[in-house]
Amino acid sequence: MSYFLAILFVGILCLILLLNLISLPANWFILALLFLWKLIGPTGSAITYAFLAGLLGLAILGEILEFGLQLWSGKRYGSTKKGNIGGIIGSILGAIFGAAFLMGFGAVIGALAGAFAGCLLMELWCGRTKDEAMHAATGALIGRFFGMTVKIGIGVSMIYFAIHRIWPQSETLTTVLL
């Protein structure tokens, strides 16, 4: 029975990871579920507080990198501070409004388009030329894309590190599947 629970739980974690695509805090949900597994799961003792603290650090790093890459890329492409702020606000609003489309996955397109549009509008409003504003907005879009990619990668890492702590200790995964 504990093998079934472990497989089911890892499957749920993988489904939760997909929430990153619709701009929901999937890595934080994964961390919360792992904490819950520690408290009530059949192999909860394998998950330690130190391990959870390490995953907390990864989740924080994911958030920092997600927005940091957008800011860095926008700046690299010539965005001003106001343009970067516009890109971040546009990204958040785009993800919220885009979530209603494509079964929630419109949030990805909305976040990317919002980063571009928010930066573009703010740069134009601050008096930049259309070409300068377009160049800066392209940087915000590229940064947002790579930020989202890194955050999803960190979520995959969190699940990867947790699998051997979730799996019942008496047998390996390959033994059970074969």
In short:
The chain has seven helices and no strands. It is mainly α.
Helicity, as a percent range:
over 70%
Net shape: elongated
Number of domains: 1
N- and C-termini, Cα separation? 17 Å
Uncertain runs: none
Residues in β-strands, percent: under 5%
Number of strands: 0
Order of helices and strands: HHHHHHH
What structural class do you assign from the helix and strand content?
Answer: mainly alpha
Radius of gyration: 20 Å
The largest sheet, given as strand count, sense and whether it forms a barrel, is:
none
Overall mean pLDDT: 88
Q: Please, how many helices? A: 7
Label this structure with key terms.
elongated; 7 helices; mainly alpha
How would you characterize this protein structure?
The chain is mainly alpha-helical and 178 residues long. The protein is 78% helix and 0% strand. The protein has one domain (2-177). The chain has helices spanning 2-17, 26-40, 49-76, 81-98, 106-125, 130-166, 173-177. Helix 2 packs antiparallel against helix 3 (49-76), helix 3 packs across helix 4 (81-98) and helix 5 (106-125) packs antiparallel against helix 6. The radius of gyration is 20 Å and the shape is elongated.
